[in-house]
Amino acid sequence: MSDTTTRPPESGLLDSGHGDTAVLGADQVHASADATSPPAAGAPKRSAQWSRDLRFMTVVLAAIAALFLAFALVVAFAPDASGVSALAIVAAPIATMVAAYYGISLALRQVSDARRAADAADARARAAEATARESDAWAAQMESGLRLAHSKLAAARVDTRDVERAAGTPDDFF
Asked: CA quadruple 81, 82, 85, 86: dihedral positive or negative?
């Protein structure tokens, strides 16, 4: 960053006691950090979760009803070995479909959770980059102000050793 980098003043941040320098209070820093964070998605996530669970329960209940109907038909019409074989023939595909539906829905849930986590991580990374850029801009502005103050004090022939120590600058900074 160059010494000429300045940050444009934001309305409400100018303080008459500091000239045209913008001064952030603690509440403004937290408000700007909250503005960059992604909104909480608790309510839509719960309704989507409930919708998925409701669909799965519906499939399981339909499968149980179909198996119960098949069992009732076997008991009513052929309670012998051939009826049990027929029940096995009907029950196996139903159980397979329920298991496949569960596996697919579980995989889709994991994919959506991973996508949501990736989006949240991406938003946090963008917020961190924006914060880093702001910090760099502020650091450059503060460095410029410190160099200006040092040069004005030196021009006025005022000892700057205390200023240099207070700023924590290295010996060859100025």
From this structure: negative
